[in-house]
Write a structure and sequence with these properties.
The protein is 29% helix and 22% strand. α4 crosses α6, α6 runs parallel beside α7 and α7 packs parallel to α9.
């Protein structure tokens, strides 16, 4: 089938927007030009003069299935991703059952194949049940499609376990992806340790909880040669450790979440669980370091850490609510509105951080608009301003403090392998 996306604009080097049409055939981009004879195409979509980009790539989402389908399912989570302009997402393994064997991982992929509307790559855990000292069989998990290995949500608490996991992953040419959190430094914390936590009378989470484990891991990564990727960096100390590791030639990459780039702990108005996330919202100095880290290449990409929860469990105090914030449907819009429009980031940089770079660092065939590449494509409206409305979410989760914020850059259409995965006209 031949499909045409007409009347759009694409980004060229130097952040210039040029008029373009995309010819799609057999799931791939056949040609990019100024004008094609649309009568020769089976399907024609009008981009209405708006931005055409490669489909976004999110290396950090929680789809909650199996085990927690009241929070999210692969069907709703992938539709949520498509609504945000994402065409590839990588799902964390904190599920029930944990996909820590080849058989369990295959069962997750069966659900993905049946229900996902975007490309879903499933992580496998580093250790059995995400909590024991027993390593998973990485070779067997790789053979059935494990994207990478992570204990996201809890982290690996023992250096010896992490060393052995890295050594095995390096031999298999697989990445270790780390939620870095030293539980011995938590002290029951629920938000960033600072003036706001003191004012609200809540136990704080030290910056060293995150940074100290990154410091441990980059030394181990240097010894083993593994590709080590740091999840949701949130502190200036973490940025410093990662920057030093990169300068030392260690194969480390890192991601940052939109909420850590935009919000700080001083924005938290009250003891409300919608503001509770892990890592927590940090200080202004941390946010500034994250932005600087993105701009100088210390941090490689932006990932959402989309973490849906049920409304009742989230709509509680910090002490009772679970950690997490949804982000698949709001990430590009928030970054575009708060950084591109004011001139802090260029549009070209944002597409690189949200599509091209995450695909590049994990070796995915995604994230580019080039002849022959998969026709994974997003179209964004850069002009119309809309308020973030949780009633329009495709996700089952509405746990975000961004509801009501006015944004531009909202998704018009998303295509996966040339097929429409989401369209604003159908919503």
């Amino acid at each position: 089938m031949k499909t045409l996306i007409k009347n759009g604009k694409i980004i060229k080097k130097d952040n210039q927007l040029i008029t373009a049409e995309i010819w799609i055939e057999d799931g791939r981009i056949r040609a990019i030009g100024e004008s094609f004879d649309e009568t020769t195409f089976t399907e024609v979509y009008d981009a209405k003069g708006q931005l055409i980009t490669p489909g976004l790539v999110d290396v950090h989402v929680h789809l909650r299935e199996p085990g927690f389908t009241y929070k999210e399912t692969i069907a709703t989570g992938s539709k949520s991703a498509a609504r945000g302009g994402y065409t590839t997402v990588c799902a964390m393994p904190n599920l029930n059952p944990v996909p820590d064997t080849a058989e369990k991982l295959k069962e997750v992929y069966q659900i993905i194949e049946k229900n996902a509307v975007v490309k879903v790559l499933q992580y496998a855990p580093i250790t059995e049940e995400l909590r024991s000292e027993r390593l998973t069989d990485q070779k067997a998990l790789k053979e059935v499609g494990a994207f990478a290995f992570t204990n996201d949500g809890v982290g690996v608490q023992t250096a010896g376990t992490m060393h052995l996991a890295m050594k095995e992953a390096a031999a298999l040419d697989m990445a270790i992806v780390a939620h870095t959190e030293d539980e011995s430094l938590l002290f029951g914390g629920v938000m960033h340790e600072g003036e706001v936590s003191k004012k609200l009378g809540l136990p704080g989470i030290l910056s060293s909880t995150e940074a100290s484990q990154i410091a441990r891991d980059v030394v181990l990564a240097g010894e083993t040669g593994v590709h080590y990727h740091v999840c949701h960096v949130s502190t200036k100390e973490s940025v410093r450790v990662i920057r030093d590791a990169k300068r030392a030639g260690i194969n480390v990459t890192a991601e940052v979440a939109p909420h850590h780039l935009i919000l700080v702990d001083e924005d938290i108005p009250e003891d409300n669980g919608f503001w509770k996330m892990n890592p927590p919202l940090r200080a202004t100095s941390d946010r500034n370091a994250l932005i600087e880290g993105l701009l100088d290449g210390t941090i490689d990409c932006i990932a959402t850490d989309h973490a849906p929860h049920g409304l009742e469990e989230k709509n509680q105090t910090f002490l009772k609510a679970p950690f997490g914030i949804v982000g698949s449907e709001t990430a590009f819009q928030l970054i575009y509105t708060h950084f591109v429009i004011p001139g802090k980031f260029t549009l070209e940089q944002v597409i690189n951080w949200m599509a091209t770079k995450p695909a590049e660092i994990f070796g995915l065939d995604a994230g580019t608009l080039t002849i022959g590449s998969p026709a994974d494509i997003a179209v964004f409206d850069l002009l119309a301003e809309e308020a973030i409305d949780d009633k329009k979410f495709e996700s089952l989760g509405v746990n975000t403090p961004f509801v009501g914020w006015k944004v531009k850059g909202n998704t018009l259409m998303t295509f996966v392998d040339g097929q429409s995965a989401w369209s604003k006209g159908d919503a």
